[in-house]
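INTERNAL AUDIT FORM
Audit reference: QA-55
Scope: verify that the stored structure record matches its stored sequence.
Auditor: D.O.
Record contents follow.
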Amino acid sequence: MDLVSPVLDVVTLICNCIGDRAASVRRLPESLRSLRTEMEKLSNVYKDVKERVELEENLEKKKSTHAVDGWIGRAEAMEMEVNELVENCDEEIQNKCLGNYCPGNCRARYKLAKMVPEKIDAVAALHTEGSNFEEVTVPLPSPQVFETPLEKPVGLDSPFEKAWKCLQDEKVGTIGIYGMGGVGKTTLLKKINNKFLQSSINAFDLVIWLVVSRSTNLERVQETILDRLGIPNERWKGREEERKAEEIRRALKTRKFLLLLDDIWDPLDLMRVGIPPLGDGNQSKIVFTTRSADVCGGMAAQKSIKVECLEEKEALSLFQAKVGEDTLNSHPDIPKLVEMVAKECKGLPLALIVIAPAMASAKTPEEWERNLHKLRKYPKNLPGTENDLFSVLAFSYDSLPDEATKSCFLYCSLFPEDYQIPSEHLIQLWIGEGFLDEYDDIQEAKNQGGEIIEKLKHACLLQVGRSQLIVGKEFLKMHDVIRDMALWLACEKGKKKKKFVVEDGVGLIRAREVRKWKDAQKISLWNNTSIEELREPPHFPNIETTLYSRSVMESFPSGLFTNMSVIRVLDFSNNNKLRELPVEIGNLVTLQYLNLSNTGIKHLPVELKNLKKLRFLLLDDMFSLGPLPPQMVSNFSSLQMFSMQSSSYKVDEVMLLKELEQLEDINDISITLTSILPAQILFNSHKLQLSTTLLQLKDCRGVKQVQISPYVQKLKVGSCDELENLEIIGSEKEAVPSKFPRQQSFNRLLRVHIVRCRKLLNLNWLIDAPKLQSLDIAFCEMEKVVEDGKITKGSEIESCSSVFSRLISLTLNCMPKLKSIYGHALPFPSLKRIIVKYCPSLKKLPFDSSIAMNKKLEEIMGNQEWWDGLEWEDQTMIENLTPYFRPLKIYQVIHLTSTA
């Protein structure tokens, strides 16, 4: 018995084990069904998770979490393992023997039967894990830069190189890119942005592109940056401005970033946005675009880059590309017509891009000629010009600060295309129109006019012009497309076509055209020959302005000026063939501005005495003018500005000055005097002294010494052969006695022009002109302009560093004995232009080393032989100045000096 009991225990244990295994093997088919069911559940969850990941990755710029990636990998591996296990189990079941209970390989079958429940548990666990994912993705880390859509840029190589150089300069943090609307500023900024797509350029951790636009919304700006930084919404959505700024500041303060801001209209407070201050070694940078140079200053840009219109060749290339080869090759005459149309756009890319598609469908020369005529005469009628061109450009107009500035801008459209507008003349017209009536004093109004010009230039609505014949005067010009836009606006966006009438070079103006002016407010006729006779006097109930300038009209039709009940401005200037002024002008009782300068008028009709509201009378360069009617000038009781420069010798200067002195409101006189007696009257009248802004002394024979009023702003002295000295009124030796107190300096003197005064040996008194801007000397025999060390005793100018500190233009012509301008080197911080011709003894220019750093210097003009013979104490100075030298053309100085 003792031996049997252990044996029975072993046998029982073996039987139980065999029984359990046999049971597992018998349950294998059922277990496989359970495994397949669990695997199907897992497969469905797998598909759901994958779809969520793909959707969020595609639509929300996210990527799957590491946990999800791991789970997907395990699920895919589990599927492979389960498939293999099921396949093996099916094979074993099919290889059965001994009925349903004896597999061919009991051990292998039992092993498979044991694995199935384990897999069921593993699959179930994966299913549970996958079903519990709340988040399957996280936001993608921001790339260094996002690409912006960009066609191949044309003509931006130069400004791009400047901007790129600034980006590489550690000393430059903020860069402003400015220019007129449609010139390519955004394209340039996109080119800068896309440059950082190149893998070899890793200058910044992050490049942020942001369009600010005209109606700046600080909240939108902040949220765009927060989104670009990938900061979760729950940290800033719905929060106050300061909290958002803090989130931005925290994200950027440790990163080297480049912030690209497009289309800024007003200075943006970057501190409020949350942009950390530049500097402190982080080398982050900001580049922005704007239409206004003022914004560059307001944004504290360390470098400002102006984007100019395309050169003619570049503009044609862009236009041809937009027109297309099919149109260009449709007729042999079309390429030339394409070139003519492209020129009308004057290099403005937006105009080229808008107008080219409108022309591209024209396949015959006749169609192109019609469209060219339409573009020149009625540009708004071309498809796209109103909505896609003028409306875009008009944003600059809408952003002007006040109605006066807007009116002044629209007024510039009255000048012809490509016309060089004298800024002084323009301001006079603005004042005459009443745009600056808030200023009682003419000088204050002029100053305000100058400020408006600067505003329009900074807004890129006016450009700096340049006359090829007259140096030393400021000229302005308006881009042709901007001018077309201004006329469109002035005519109430094309709704009133004849509100502003501008005709240039049409020859004879027909009577039927004149009748169309009945609703006009302003009429501007340039370079025309005559107006056809009228059957009856026309009615112009709305006309406020008539400009008949630079024409060859000998007379006007009878009755043309009869019915102008609200006329304010009448300008006949530069109509040198006009011999007679229509008598009916004397009935224009509302007239306030009358300009007859440079006309051939011989007599002023006595009827002009009726013009009691006349405030401006300009009679310059009227060489044929006879004596003025007695008491005419004194009868203009409202007169504020009077100008008679270089006009007829027949005018009684003494009588004229006495009449001017009687005028209560006069405060701006420009006059030419030819003898000592009228000079005495002027210098002994405090009122005339205060009012005289321009004084010209011409052909004053026998006068050796003259004292000049300290209130004069512009002084011209010509052909005074005996003149030896010029001094300020009140000095100890007075050739013309004065009863007024001594003045210490010419604080108001801006321009000096001296011609053919051979005994005038120096201009030492210029030291007492601290605000002098322009100096022209010609045909004089002086050896030194200002003698060494001639600082006037008691002068307000006590150091050489202030001498000529505001001089902008210096012209020296035909002065064979001239050896020196000034005895010491001077900085000339304001100098833009110097012209020297036929001054063979002038071997040195009085520049110190700082002239090379003068950012305002534009050009040095002179004879090549003179330039090559100059002596320089510092060789680096000539190397720095040579790029500014331009060989001088003869007519540029001859014309200048003949104006005296």
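Auditor finding: record pair retrieved intact. The first strand starts at residue 62 and ends at 64.
Action required: none
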